[in-house]
Design brief:
Shape: globular
CATH topology: Dihydrodipicolinate Reductase, domain 2
Strand content: 35-45%
CATH superfamily: Dihydrodipicolinate Reductase, domain 2
Order of helices and strands: HEEEEEEEHHEH
CATH class: Alpha Beta
Number of domains: 1
Amino acid sequence: MAALRTILPAPLTHISSFASLNKEILKPQDTIHAIAKSNADFHGIVEISFSQPTKTKPVADTYLFTGSKGWLAINMGQPTDDGGKANRITLNQLQGSSGEGKTTTIDEKSRGVEEELKSFFDAVDGKPTEAVGDPLGALRDVAFIQAALTSAGELVSLDALLSR
């Protein structure tokens, strides 16, 4: 949720979801299927599962954003030629009226945890730092997960959860 919170241009404000249990060891719930929206002009599907039935995962985009002029996919932990891992960003932009798209792919080295720790230690040392996150943002992430686990298909206002 923190990744979505930092990628999206406005906060998610509403959710309707169903949660289920697929593996007994992960009680009470291990999978969420949700529809989320923002008061801005966007909405989408959020799926979270910790119950992969096999050691391998299906090929799917980690984050997929679609719009009227193309799509953007972000896939975490993609193998690189040097044996490392990268975040692969694929942008497909509409070219003219033919419906054809121009695809651009960028591999960016995974370093999120490294950046978060650097920011934390800089703040502790009193050095100026670019904020990686904030407590209210983390609270919004928790509110989303809480709503996703308890919605049972009903529309939930995330803003209402935060104002309690």
